[in-house]
Amino acid sequence: MQRSDEQIARDIREQLAFNKRLDGSDLQVDVSNGHVALSGAVPSYPARTAAEKDARIISGVQSVENGIRVEPPTEQPAVPTDGEIQAAVERLLVQAPDVNIRDLSLSVNSGEVVLEGSVDHLWKKLRAGEVAGMAAGVRAIHDHLVVVPSDSVMDRVIGEGIEAALDRMEPVEAEAVDVEVKDGVVRLTGSVPNQTSLISAEEAARHSEGVIEIYNELRVQ
Question: Does pLDDT of 87 surpass 90?
């Protein structure tokens, strides 16, 4: 039975209230045909990410548009300067050796971080954005890192690897997911029963060798 937008919105609000990592009282949740739009403000970038994750796990959600702003508390004794934010982000990235960004170029303007350089796996690009967002004072991440695989992997091999990973994942019905690969760019289409399956399918593609970008066009039944 299809869930109504009102039911979905109610569950998202309850989940946001339940999550002690953020204050959901200042967040707005709008749902139209299962497509969720989040707005409002939170004090940190990790809280913004946490709110989106909370929305994605709710039954009936088709997609999530995260329009939440990051507004650090004004009562802080000192808001970090752009230079301090840049130094903190650089330190965090150095302390995350699994990321290993090559030719890193980092800049900060009004709390918005721009990352440039290259990595050899897509998951490292995504991880770099997560790590950078942990620095105090960060308002937004603009991740322009380029994925340059260390070894050339044929599209057919990439597709077979993703399909094999989907077969191993309990929440995903592999036969319901179509995997198309062209020049390392993966497109996922088909239908899955819930957001958990959708996220799991994308995770399988993220960690596959040779993938440089993913377009997740899966639909939730």
Answer: yes
Nearest in space to 136 (alpha carbons), one of 173, 89, 179, 178: 89
> Looking at residue 73, what is its pLDDT?
74
| CA distance linking residue 9 with residue 147, whole number of Å | 36
Between 65 and 3, the more confident residue is 65
Architecture of the CATH domain 5-70: 2-Layer Sandwich (3.30)
For the segment 7-29, the average pLDDT, to the nearest whole number, is 86
Residue with tokens 């950078």: 132
Which tokens go with 39? 């707005």
Give one DSSP letter per residue of 17-32, joined into a string. HH-TTS-GGGEEEEEE
Q: Among the residues of the chain, which ranges form H helices?
A: 5-18, 45-56, 82-94, 122-132, 155-168, 195-206
Fold for the domain defined by 82-147: Histidine-containing Protein; Chain: A; (3.30.1340)
Bridge partners of residue 187, in order along the sequence: 180, 215
User: Can 5-70 and 155-220 be said to share one CATH topology?
Assistant: yes
